[in-house]
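Bench notes, afternoon.
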Amino acid sequence: MKNDKKLSLADQNRLKTTEKVKKALEKLKKSKIPINVSSVSKMAKISRKTISTNRPDLKEMIEEARSLQSDLDPSEGGKSKSKGTTQSERVKQLREKNKDLIEDKKKVLNQNMILTKENTKLKERLADLEEKLYSQSKIKVVEMNKIPNK
């Protein structure tokens, strides 16, 4: 927070809240207390509404930390997992999403190639038409009645 003077008061408060949440998450990880919105809000001394409603970025940070904690904690082996995704499920989802994005990228590149070829053809046609127009403008038009008869 070295550049606090350049930030608005609201941005400074957002940064402070984010720092509080990060510190609370570190403390909870070290003490092996279950990580959830309630425990983080108590540890960071901020309201649950701030996390749940106003700051989805903080909620996502907490969900990620909780997922990581559940992956690392072997004592939860017999318990059923919560609805939150585990780290390995998240990696699997991201790999699938990555495959989809790669396919989309291929389609876009193919469309780009087609459009580039079409653009080149249109530029060539325009150049031809401009050349014809220029050559037509050089031709002198002579009226039929002014042509001398032989």
